[in-house]
Amino acid sequence: MTLSSTEDTLFIVTSNHQLIKTNIALDGTDEEAKTENVICSFHSDVITGMDTCIRKQIIVTCSKDKTVRIWNYNSKTLEICHPANEEALAVAMHPSGFHIIVAL
Length: 104
Fold this sequence. Notes:
The chain is built from no helices and ten strands. It has strands at residues 2-3, 9-13, 19-23, 35-37, 47-52, 58-63, 67-72, 77-83, 90-93, 100-103. Strand 2 (9-13) and strand 3 form a beta hairpin.
């Protein structure tokens, strides 16, 4: 963990190598902390499956870290991160981009 030079933002590196920042209220108010990823959250283990959508600019990936993620490769952002109960072995996306099947 480290503080910014103005000491109003705390940066945290998690055990799965994610960089997160949160604001700190210096004026003594009970303002709710806003937590966000500095860089979009990546998989923290081996990627086991990947598929693209032919009608939308998205890619779906699954990993041994027990997550399935949908990425927008045009805007270079993470759209959805869904935690699974087990390791995902493979993933496939319907051409419309509205349906995904995950092999567990």
